[in-house]
Amino acid sequence: MAVDRITRPHVDDLVERLDLQVRERVRREGVDPQREASLVRRIAEDVVRDHDDLSLTGAVAPVADDSAMVGELVARVSGFGPLQPFLDDPEVEEIWINDPSRVFIARRGRHELTNLRLDAAHVNELVERMLKSSGRRLDISTPFVDAMLPEGHRLHVVLEGITRGFTAVNIRKFLLRAHRLSDLVSLGSLTPQAARFLEASVRAGLNVLVAGGTQAGKTTMLNCLAAAVPGGERVVSAEEVFELSNIARVQTWPGLSTPHKGPSSTSAKAWTARALAPRWSASARTA
User: Fold this and answer.
1) 233 vs 39: CA distance, rounded Å
2) How are beta strands 144-148 and 110-113 bridged, if at all?
3) pLDDT at position 244, please?
4) How much is the pLDDT for 167?
């Protein structure tokens, strides 16, 4: 469970001190916290162990739970801070911040208000860290951002000013529970007859339109359909963020520009035209 920053000030003071020590060693040893999380964990374990050794002298209070403290330090330095436990929880499907003091999650399709309380500065820090890993930017020229987190989760951010008083955040976790149409049959999402019909349609090269509301399963369905494409053909997708697998993928970059040429041709429309070009494959399909 995430630490409540309001009701546990003494614990937070200790976490802050150890956090500073971990960050200092990460900088000193030249560790990339996003790419080398295992090294960050080793450093956090060393810092907590040193603190426990010092606590034997009575100079500092001991850590109540070494494992939990190491996990929180790794989440703060290498992960996404107090949101990391929700990202690690396989039952949590979605996370959103309506305002910093009201953080919601969706678990098994049901919405829950968590006991996590943040402030505007903390939300901005988390957003900056998330966007750094994606290469996207959030500013007045691009006040809405769709991006992908390292684990494949989809991030939606709206700049403060467009929303009132804070930056709004939504994370839809990528939980792929089916890889083929037969998996959807096993899950009870499709009948065997429907699965056979869709597979035959894909193999015949027919157009298939997949539509639905948020979290209706569109990406899962597209991945299952893509798995039905014959092995001799190549699939090219044009996506806002990378969500499909086992295909050639290109990504749109709204607002991307160059100093001399202005906006670059990376829109969905431009990529769709390129995906249909012969140089990709003589038998390429477009998703």
Assistant:
1) 41
2) unpaired
3) 66
4) 87
